[in-house]
Amino acid sequence: MAQKRQPFYRSRAFRQGSIATVITALFIAVMVSLNLFVGVLAERHQWWLDLTAEQVFALSDESIQFLAELDADITIYVLTPETNLTAMGIYFVQANEVLRQYAALSPHITVRYIDLTRDPAFAARFPQFQLNAQTILLETENRIETLHIFDLFNIETDFRGSRIVSSRAEQALTSMLLFLTIDRQVTVGVLTGFGESDSSALISLLETNRYRVITQNLLTEEISPEVTMLIINAPIRDYPQDAIARLEQFLQSERDVSLLYFAGINQPMLPNLEAFLAGWGIIVNDGIIYQTSPGMTRGGPYLSLVHYTEDFYSRHAVGFFSVMPSPRPLEFLFHQRGDRTVSAPLIFGETACIRPLDADDDWSPRDSEAFGPFAALAITYDEILLDDKTLRTSAVAVFASQHFVDAERLLDPYAGNAQFMLGLVQGLTDHMGEVPIAPKVIGAAPLPITDFQTIIFGILFVVVLPLAVIFAGGVVFLRRRHM
């Protein structure tokens, strides 16, 4: 008599399979629950790690300190849904993460995402602004300001179109938050009318950091009493004596004021301006600084790197190099005379020499009569004790090259030109609230492996690993078949 076949659901295989299935289901449920629990805690307590090499998603120490000291309530309205913002690309994801960190690190900051198509009444609350889906609106109890979404990025435009080259989201947002919480705004005057070079990149940097910038022509107007700093960018026509007198009158006012002068390699002789600078102990000589050490250049002997000689103005540029293209030699007439003292916060090193502008094609550094160090930036301070016992300081700062503040240099995320300029302007205007923050580049870094290693990894992952999986699967199949 044939043995009665046992039902499958009572078999050993079924029992083992059921137990395995239950254990697997319980394990998956526990892991999903744990993941959700940890996710909620991470969202609430800001538990996360930025594993990118350049920490592109992390806030700087300057922003963290500012947020720790913030005591004013600020609401940041992003006028597009968060999913729409992050869907626009990795730079927008980074900007959104910056916004989220502000809210996580300060109880005084609230970030809200507004969909104007679903809430058209929101725009009616702010009729003074042209609000759209690319607007970020920041509101305090007494002030309201706006940013355009593309103010958060450095944009490069060429024949191929426009594209984002780096993020300045943290710089723009922290500076705007700071601007909303301070009472004083510094006004900078850019002088025009004498063939000065384009200062748009420097103006953009200052305005992004909440300075008020105006243009003035000393041929037709007096210097505004609101101006704290003047900028003269490589003029090609000399200033007349009445304009020089206005400069001197400005620098003798009973408040802290300053003037930035940028020299240009193509400037002609400017007797009045040169005499004015000489009175402050600085001469801009003919010639061009030639860097003989390839390690101290950024692509050629006329693109010299500079050394920081102090940490007051350069404190935000530490870790970055600053580039001074096509610089002219600066000379000191004195180091101290009366109330005036001259210093050099930026210098070219000992490997720099001077190449005459009329040098022959066969000129070589061996022909140079002088080697560094040379001043790349000279600053003269004039300190006077006023009748009320307060100290008034005037300063004239002369840069060896106008190209130090070209757009290419100020937008270079690997150079410290922008950071140094902001540190200098802050120090000279006593406007220490601004937060200079380096732009951040987001990109994939190449894996540093050799061709041989590439072949080995290819064999491992394309051949060995798949064969190992097939072999393991075959062993499991054969064992279970004979159970």
What is the compact description of this entry?
The protein has 12 helices and 20 strands.
DSSP summary: helix tally: 12
Indicate the mean pLDDT: 84
> Architecture of the domain at 185-429, CATH level 2?
3-Layer(aba) Sandwich
Judging from the principal axes of the Cα atoms, what is the shape? globular
- Percent helix range: 25-40%
Uncertain runs with pLDDT below 50, 5 residues or more?
none
| CATH level-four homologous superfamily name of the domain at 185-429 | Class I glutamine amidotransferase (GATase) domain
Q: Main sheet, how many strands, which sense, barrel?
A: 10 strands, mixed
The CATH topology annotation of the domain at 185-429 reads as Rossmann fold
List keywords for this structure.
483 residues, alpha/beta, Glutaredoxin, Rossmann fold, ten-stranded mixed beta sheet, four-stranded mixed beta sheet, 33% helix, 24% strand
